[in-house]
Amino acid sequence: MDNDVTLDRRTLLRGVAALGGMLALPALSVATEQSSSSAVAQSAEPTTLRDVPLSPAAKLTIERRGAIVLIGFNRPYIQNRVDPETFTALAKAYYEYDNDPSLRAAVLFGHGDNFSRGIDVDAFAELARSQKPLVSGPGYIDPLAKGQRLSKPLIAVVHGDTWNLGHELNLVADIRIAAANTRYGQDENTHGRFPGSGSTIRFVHEVGWGNAMRYMLTGDHWTAEDSYRMGEAQEVLPTPQAALDRAVEIANKIAACGPLGIKMTLTSAHLVIDPVQADALMKLDEQYGALYHTQDFLEGRRAEAEGRKPVYVGK
Fold first, then answer.
1. Beta strands per DSSP E along the chain
2. Element (H, E) at 301
């Protein structure tokens, strides 16, 4: 891909703002018949997760390395923002990884200068107008784990901009590794909306109420050192490559352990967490969507598109 290609963010946002109240971004979740209270995926037919090599056409790469797999966002020309196709591909990859008996650990990372700046607003516009679920039917696991979750370990390794949806995908991981240049952000409140893909639940759980509210309520960004201090990142490495190498090393250590014991460890731990979080996670979609019909949401979009400070009225 041509990494020198950049998009004019303001132009993109002007198009979104022009849609007005018609634009209510769909809940970023997977519609399945799986109950949100279920701790482990239902048994399914074995699958084989196949490689997707790095190429200009691949928005999500998949690289098998023995018993582990590396899954990489590959939209560097738009800071790895996630569009519907990428989100769907990730949901499918998670399902196939979880049901592939030859794989025991997965690593999620980003190609290019950033892990992910979150949602690709422009790409979601058409889906938003349709009000259809992002993904439905069997063969997918919600990357945001609002219902069925992975039963195998996931390691996230982040670098550069790791914002909003990108940060929330990171929070779903069992182990989180960061490069020293990571810039975290959960700044939806500065744009007239709120973190609707899990941070209000998982970020609070991981770093504590005060630490999470410090950043979510102000929209301030934080560093890899801050993340490590708060307990969100388990390790910080000097460079993105060093961070990825460390994640692969940890994944291989996990893969060398007994797979049944690994799964049972995750299952047992989730028996503590899931019942507490399930109800709040199920309510996120409704809460998230409600704000998209408010004056403040539209003002946030217009202000960002016009490069000015928003003026919110609480309506």
1. 30-31, 60-65, 68-73, 105-110, 135-136, 154-158, 161-163, 175-179, 183-185, 222-223, 235-237
2. helix 295-306
| Average pLDDT rounded to a whole number, residues 41-48 | 77
Longest dimension (CA), the chain: 56
* Single-letter residue type at 136: S
Catalytic residue list contains 85: no
Residue 275 · residue 214 · CB < 8 Å? no
CA-wise closest residue to 86 among 59, 62, 109: 59
For 261, half-sphere exposure in the C-beta direction (CA atoms, 13 angstrom radius) is 5
pTM of the predicted model as reported, rounded to 2 decimal places: 0.87
User: What's residue 31's pLDDT?
Assistant: 56
Sorted by where each starts, the structural domains of the chain and their CATH numbers stand as: 14-306 (3.90.226.10)
DSSP state of 190: G
Q: CA-to-CA distance for 61 and 15, rounded, in angstroms?
A: 29
Question: 33, 85, 96, 188: which one is catalytic?
Answer: 188
CA distance 267 to 269: 6
Which residue of the set 96, 168, 232, 299 is catalytic? 168
| Residue 133 backbone dihedrals phi, psi, to 5 degrees | -65, 150
> In angstroms, rounded to a whole number, what is the distance separating the alpha carbons of residues 156 and 168?
11
Angle between helices 199-207 and 209-216 (to 10 degrees): 130
168 carries an active-site annotation: yes
**Residue 271 clears pLDDT 70, i.e. is over it:** yes
With CA atoms as reference, report the closest residue to 241 among 68, 155, 113, 60.
Answer: 113
Residue 177's pLDDT band, with cuts at 50, 70 and 90, is very high
Average pLDDT rounded to a whole number, residues 207-232: 98
Task: Tell me the two tokens of residue 253.
Answer: 């250590």
